[in-house]
TrEMBL record:
Protein's name according to its UniProt entry: Amidohydrolase
Lineage: Bacteria, Pseudomonadati, Pseudomonadota, Gammaproteobacteria, Cellvibrionales
Claim: Kinase is one of the keywords in the record: no
A Pfam family that the UniProt record links to this protein: Amidohydro_1
Residue intervals of the Amidohydrolase-related domain: 79-451
Keywords recorded for this protein, A-Z: Hydrolase, Signal
Entry superkingdom: Bacteria
GO molecular function: hydrolase activity, acting on carbon-nitrogen (but not peptide) bonds
Length: 470
């Protein structure tokens, strides 16, 4: 009775929206099982009505009178849930006209591939002016893709890893940069492990002054304990936990890519693990572990599974080549280091389980499109990695739905299926609460209320690939 009352109230709230729409732009998914992700439950035989980009009604099938002209999607035997999130992505951006010509088609393909795997929200972990152009095109419906939250260009230090980052060695240079990023509209700031302790402190102070969150790697010169106390909002790749106890000089000697660094997981005592978990929870710091990335580095079978996926051939030729040729990454990480990473992987999984059990915030992220990490594909791999760590399917799905929404401060608008919320949704052909591989069995996706069937998405991917091959 209580559940019916909730839906009755939802219909009352939705009535004016349905009437105003008069069928135009109204879509209803009928007879679907709803997985709202507000708790571990599923609600069978529901009709979900969407208009103007919002969920305007949820009720038992057959109890909603739809306006003439409403589009209907048969949801019988299917499951509707919130869209997924990649909270650590790298969409190809641009800073000048030459880069715009080169990278815009790749970015469009990346975003489309995300949509085709049920991803409706992406936090880009190293933005550029081009990303704002992409976001506008997606918002206007000119491109098919997820909503973009764009972090600043990456802050690095004297011994920078990448040429495209912003190298800052003088703390006094930080405030003008942060002020500019805030005015431009970047969601937050991204730091790298090469940042000096002095510049790190300046970044954190400026970020607080401009009310910008900070995400990133734990700097070698700062360490995990001080970073957890700094006010950082999210730590990426478990960076910092994974070199705890390694001398700073050793980290700088090879950029932190040594066997010594990765073996630190196996040297970490349970007491130290529990201490770090407690500090993480107390600080309110979230983690984006990118477990699937680590596995890709040391487990060739993981690469093979992606290459053999039926949808792989629909990727841009350049994306396929990047997945098949990981020589660049294999050159950065020696065979010895990759072996150490493989040996440490079970301990990393135990660490994730300990964070989850303690109530620490966890989110899915992929590092796509680092060579080999396919946008969208790796999000599902990451969710399954969370389950491998011992999280239930529901907990693993939370890390890609309601958890990112809470972290971003938009849980009143995203992350669950409820009346009034933005219609960023996926429709699946089987139940992901029973088997997470159901995430691969996509029927279609709603992006800000716009319905895209899997057939339409795959046709768009085929068209992009054909154009790129010309």
């Amino acid at each position: 009775m209580k559940l019916k009352g909730v839906f009755a109230a939802a219909l009352l709230l939705a009535g004016s929206a349905l009437t105003a729409a008069a069928g135009a732009g109204v879509t209803a998914v009928t007879g679907v099982t709803v997985i709202p992700m507000d708790s571990e439950r599923s609600i069978p035989n529901q009709t979900v009505v969407i208009a103007d980009g919002r969920i305007v009604a949820i009720a038992e099938a057959g109890t909603v009178t739809l306006p003439v002209g409403a589009d209907r999607i048969d949801g019988a035997g299917r499951y509707l849930m919130p869209g997924l999130a990649d909270m650590h992505a790298h969409i190809y951006g641009f800073n000048n006209e030459e880069e715009e010509v080169a990278y815009t088609p790749v970015a469009e393909a990346q975003l489309l591939n995300y949509a085709a795997t049920g991803v409706t929200l992406v936090r880009d972990a190293g933005g550029s002016p081009g990303h704002f152009s992409y976001r506008s095109r997606v918002s206007a419906g000119d491109w098919i893709g997820p909503d973009l939250f764009v972090a600043s260009p990456i802050f690095e230090g004297e011994r920078n890893v990448w040429d495209f980052t912003v190298k800052v060695t003088d703390p006094s240079a930080v405030e003008p940069l942060v002020a500019d990023y805030a005015e431009t509209g970047y969601w937050g700031l991204k730091i790298y492990h090469t940042t000096s302790s002095e510049v790190f402190d300046a970044i954190m102070a400026s970020a607080q002054a401009h009310e910008l969150p900070v995400m990133g790697h734990v700097p070698f010169d700062v360490g995990i304990d001080a970073t957890l106390e700094s006010g950082i909002s999210s730590i990426e790749h478990l960076r910092g936990y994974d070199f705890d106890g390694v001398p700073v000089a050793s980290l700088w000697a090879d950029g932190g890519r040594s066997r010594e660094r990765f073996s630190s997981w196996n040297r970490m005592t349970l007491e130290r693990r529990d201490e770090l978990v407690s500090k993480t929870v107390a600080a309110g710091v979230w983690n984006v572990p990118t477990l699937a990335v680590n596995r890709m580095l040391f487990d060739p079978a993981t690469r093979t599974r992606v290459i053999e996926h039926p949808r792989f051939t629909r990727l841009l030729p350049a994306m396929q080549q990047g997945m098949q040729d990981l020589a660049g990454l294999d050159a950065i990480f020696s065979a010895e280091s990759r072996d150490a990473l493989g040996e440490a992987y079970p301990v990393m999984l135990e660490f994730i389980k300990a964070l989850s059990d303690a109530g620490a915030g966890l989110m899915t992220g992929t590092d796509s499109a680092v060579p080999g990490y396919v946008p969208g594909f790796t999000v599902i791999d990451e969710i399954q990695s969370f389950a491998e760590a011992g999280l239930t399917p529901f907990q693993a799905l939370q890390a890609s739905t309601i958890a990112p929404a809470r972290y971003l401060g938009i849980a009143d608008d995203r992350g669950t299926v409820a009346v009034g919320k933005r219609a960023d949704l996926v429709v699946l052909n089987s139940n992901p609460l029973e088997d997470l591989s159901a995430l691969w069995d996509l029927s279609g996706v709603f992006l800000n209320g716009r319905w895209h069937s899997l057939a339409d998405l795959e046709a768009a991917m085929d068209e992009q690939s054909a154009v790129a091959a010309e």
